[in-house]
Specification:
This protein has 17 helices and 6 strands. It is mainly alpha-helical. The chain has a 3-stranded antiparallel beta sheet, with no helix packed on it. A 3-stranded antiparallel beta sheet has the order 4-5-6, with no helix packed on it. Strand 1 and strand 2 form a beta hairpin. Helix 6 runs parallel beside helix 7. The chain starts with a strand and ends in a 27-residue tail after the last helix. The structure holds acetyl coenzyme *A. The site of acetyl coenzyme *A has 18 residues, from helix 16.
């Protein structure tokens, strides 16, 4: 017999169905709760609420497991191919060779921006935040590709996804060049996804930026590790916007805004600032840990802690190993890596962090690897967005294809004044 949860309120007893996911996680189905009982549930920040059924990403936060479409994240690390993972996240299975070739060709065909978008960059002030530019420009793409305002069918979705995934790196690189007052580098159709991005970022007139295989692999890996992470803040944003049947461009633009926050994707920038501050001698690693534990101080140990992981974030583990590997390959050293290791060692042996199960998250080492690749700090969160875009698209598609999907409309517990009269100005 199907399992039921029993809710007793006063002398009323209600039976609620219990759902079970493919990995055994159980959820009390309260879909009919308000209709049947008049009651709401109160779950601020939705920490206990499954808002959808999803077949894209599985996380076991206690064991530190992350899988895309069932495949452990570690298995993508040895020969990282971001384009292959992006297609798989969106379409639900690994692509066959001809499917991957077709998608790669679509990315190449769509790498240019409409010149109108290019002109918009000219009117931005120097130093404009790249995440603001990214969000605004992704939203603007809807003006240039109106056929994708209503996506019907896999082919149309694939075309729209290719436009977004391809153009996002052109937009990102252009925003960087704009901030520095440098001429834009048009994409080079002979280059693969990551190499093309680095070319647009770093080539200068008459001097092509040469991408080494180590650096190309490292960037593929960074993008893959950010590919999807089930119902995180930015993905939930994309779903909430998409639930109103807003178009894919608008949903992804909104997700970029959510990602910008320092408690989410912006944490990689905060980690770097923290490590630099320690390196400059403004703060010792021990002081940093002390400040993070001090409840009167809003400072947090950035890159530590996670709503879901109560164990080492598997992405942080892969990135830590990748840092060691890439620095050896490039015969380079970075004092910030040593500081990060020291901080990790201190935190993981401190009862404050042990008791709260606070471990390094993806942002702790991603910045150091991006720095080794040559990416400046203010582009870190943009790189996170490039990596996460296939995840947002996959989640938007899953919701769009679900015939039971409804507009997201949470409830509240009202705590304001009871009915009161409007007072004319002279009586206030
Ligand atoms: N440094 C110091 N203390 C921390 C940290 C941290 N990084 N993270 C959590 N804590 C403490 C909290 O103060 C709280 O302590 P208390 O129980 O004494 O009040 C306890 O651990 C639980 O923390 P919450 O904030 O309730 O955890 P929540 O799940 O809401 O937040 C979050 C998760 C936002 C990631 C948090 O750990 C944090 O702020 N970390 C730093 C920012 C960061 O690295 N963000 C990136 C997350 S990964 C991503 O978005 C890609």
């Amino acid at each position: 017999m199907a399992e039921k949860a029993v809710l007793t309120v006063g002398d009323q007893r209600y039976e609620l169905p219990v759902l079970e996911g493919t990995e055994g996680e159980r959820a009390i189905d309260i879909t009919r709760l308000r209709d049947d009982t008049g009651l709401l549930t109160y779950d601020p920040a939705l920490g206990n609420t499954a808002v959808c059924k999803s077949a894209i990403t599985f996380i076991d936060g206690d064991k530190g497991i992350l899988r895309y479409r069932g495949i452990p994240i570690e298995q993508f690390a040895s020969r990282p191919n971001f384009v292959e993972v992006a297609w798989m996240l969106i379409f639900g299975r690994l692509p066959r060779q001809e499917e991957l070739n077709r998608f790669s060709d679509l990315l190449t065909c769509n790498e240019l921006l409409h010149e109108g978008v290019g002109y918009q960059f000219q009117h931005l002030p120097p130093g404009a935040p790249p995440m603001a530019i990214l969000s605004a420009t992704l939203s603007n793409l809807a003006c240039y590709h109106p056929t994708f305002l209503a996506i019907e069918g896999e082919e149309s979705l694939e075309e729209a996804a290719a436009r977004l995934i391809s153009k996002v790196r052109t937009i990102a690189a252009f925003s960087y060049r704009r901030a520095l007052g440098l001429p834009f580098n048009y994409p080079d159709p002979r280059l693969r996804y990551c190499a093309n991005f680095l070319h647009m970022m770093f080539s200068i007139p008459y001097q092509q930026y040469i991408v080494t295989p180590e650096v190309e692999d490292a960037l593929n890996l960074v993008f893959i590790l950010h590919g999807d992470h089930e119902q995180n803040c930015s993905t939930s944003t994309a779903r909430v916007v998409g639930s109103a049947k807003a178009n894919l461009f608008a949903s992804c633009a909104a997700a970029v805004c959510a990602l910008w926050g320092p408690l989410h994707g912006g944490a990689n920038v905060e980690v770097m600032e923290m490590l630099k501050r320690i390196h400059k001698g403004g703060l010792s690693p021990e002081d940093c840990i002390r400040e993070a534990k001090d409840k009167t101080n809003p400072f947090r140990l950035y890159g530590f802690g996670h709503r879901v992981y109560r164990n080492y974030d598997p992405r942080a583990k892969i990135l830590h190993e990748a840092c060691d590997r890439v620095f050896t390959q490039l015969k380079r050293k970075d004092p910030l890596l040593d500081i990060a290791r020291k901080l990790e060692e201190l935190a993981l042996s401190d009862p404050y962090f042990i008791d709260r199960k606070l471990y390094p998250n993806v942002d702790f080492y991603s910045g150091i690897l991006l720095r080794a690749i040559g990416i400046p700090t203010d582009m870190f969160t943009v790189c996170f967005a490039i990596g996460r875009l296939p995840g947002w698209i996959a989640q938007w598609k899953e919701q769009h294809d679900d015939p039971t999907s409804k507009i997201c409309r949470p409830r509240q517990v009202y705590t304001g004044p009871n009915e009161t009269d409007y007072l004319p100005m002279e009586k206030r």
